[in-house]
Structures are given as structure tokens and as C-alpha cells.
Amino acid sequence: MARNVAQPTRKEHAQHSPHDDGFLNKAIRNNTRTGPVAQRPIKEAKPVEKHRKPRETVSVAGVFKKSKTNAREKKHQHRRRRRSPSPPNLLLDLQDIHASFTTTLTTSREADEAFFQEVSDSAITLSAPLVDEEVFSSFTRADGKRSRETFVMGEQIEMFKQLLEKEEARLAEYWSKWEECQDEYVNLGVEVFGAEAFGEDGKGGKEKGWKKEGQLREAEYEVAFGKMEEEVGEIRGVFLKEMKDSEKVSGVAVVGFIMILTLALGVGSSGEERAGQTSASSYPGLIGCGD
Predict the structure, then answer these.
(1) Cα–Cα dist 291/289, whole Å
(2) How far apart are CA 286 and CA 282, in angstroms?
(3) Reported pTM
(4) pLDDT tens-digit map of 113-132
(5) Are 151 and 157 in contact (CB under 8 A)?
(6) What are the extents of the domains in the chain?
(7) Where is this region: Disordered (predicted)?
């Protein structure tokens, strides 16, 4: 694109001050040429389209880009950069923080007071005596009529205690019957399958049945041993009595035989005494016979 105004050199540009830029722009604007527009008569049959010639422009961006800033402007810009920012308003921040904390504290205090009031009301309700408290109940009878009755809590509690004791006694009775049934079942199992199949491994409730079976067997053996000991004692007493009787008889027979033998040999009275002493010392059982 052609330019009507020549750009100044670097040296010439350095000689001009920034204040001359307005004059330069004015000169460029006045010297800019605009092509004339050709006007032709319009034909009646067919209009002719008009084509405008593009306007010539001149760019001065390079001039401003290469322009230098003077020392005064540099000093002013440097002073503006070094200037510290304005301090924040700490009082407003403090007031905002105080208002936020006050709102939070008020909300928390209201929640705590409501909780304590609810706990106090519940404690009063729970600590009230229930013995004399009356309860109204409405129900429908079998005939379809509505009925309303009043119950005293103390009486209902007493009735419930009695019912509970009665049911506990029935439950204990049922448990005893259950244990008897289990013991009977284990005993039948021991009789059919043997003791090894019940309780030796210590698993389940079979050990209890086997233990009971052992206790029963032990009691039977103790009774049998007691009877045998009684019989042995009786037999021992009879045997000792018979031995004593036989010793007496044999002692008398020996003494008589010795006396007959002594008389037959013609031994005197001294010999008889010695023979009697000898026989007494040789047969100690004869001493008891003499007594």
C-alpha cells in the first residue's frame, strides 16, 4: 500500500518531543487522499452497480512503538509503582467478625436452653409416682359394644407381679420335665447303642446321661459289695466259732490220751504233772479249754 507521508527516521524522531504527536496526526489526516467517485448516468434499461475504490490508510503504530518515554514520565511511573496500597479497614472486619460470633453464640445458647428445658420436663414426668396413676382404656366387647374402663397403675403392677411369679413356677416345672425326658432318652440310647455312643467324646448333652448312668452303676456295685461284706462277716463268725469248738474237743481228747498213756506206763504223780505241763506248753489252745 502506498504512503503519502514518509515516516521520520530514528534520529529525526528523537529530536521531536511527544507533544508533537498531535501535529503529526493532523498532518497525516490532512494529507490523506481519497479517490473520487465516478458518477455515471443511470440507464433506464439496466442499472449499473457501483464499485468504490478502497480508501488508502497509513499506519502509525510503528511510530508510537519506537517512541521513547522521557525522564519525567519514568520518574512518575516509578513513584506510582512504589506507592504502597491503602491499608484495609480493620474496624469493619472486626465488627463483622464480632457480629458473626454473636449470632453463632446466640443460636447455640437457644438450642442448649431448649434441650435443658426438655430434659427437665422429662425428668419431672418420669419422677412422678405411678402407683396412684389412673389410665383410661376404651375397647370393643365381643358383642360389638364400646366400653371404657379405668385402671390404677399400682393394682395393674401387682397383678403383673403375681402373673410373673406363676409363670416362673410353671417354667421351672417344664424345665424339670424336659431334663427328665432328656435323661430318659439318653438312658434308652445307652441301652440300645452302648455307652461308647453317648458322652465319651464330651460333646453335646450326652455326657450328662452317661455320667448319670455311671453313678447308677456305681451305686448298684456299692450295694452289692455291702451285701457281700455282710455275708463274709457272717461266714467268718461261724467259722471262728467252729474252730474254737474243734480246738476244745481236740484239746480234751489229747489230754485224755496223755493221761491214759501215762497210766499205762506206770508213771507217778510227778510224771503226770510234767506231762501236763509239757502238753500245755506244746498246745497253747488247751489253755483256753481249761478256762
Answers:
(1) 5
(2) 9
(3) 0.26
(4) 999 999 998 888 777 777 77
(5) no
(6) 188-290
(7) 1-91
Read out DSSP for the chain?
Answer: ---SSPPPPHHHHHHS-GGGHHHHHHHHHHH---PPPP--PPPSSS-----PPPPP----HHHHHH----HHHHHHHHHHHHSPPPPP-HHHHHHHHHHHHHHHHHHHHHHHHHHHHHHHHHHHHHHS--SS-EEEEEEE-TTS-EEEEEEEHHHHHHHHHHHHHHHHHHHHHHHHHHHHHHHHHHHHHHHHH-GGGSSTT--TTHHHHHHHHHHHHHHHHHHHHHHHHHHHHHHHHHHHHHHHHHHHHHHHHHHHHHHHHHHHHT--HHHHHHHHHHHHHH-THHHHHH-
Cell numbers that stand for 259 in this block: 493221761
Reported as a single tens digit per residue, the pLDDT across 191-229 is 777 777 666 544 444 445 566 667 777 888 888 888 888
Cα–Cα distance, 97 to 15 (Å, whole number): 61
Whether the Cβ atoms of residue 76 and residue 55 lie closer than 8 Å to each other: no
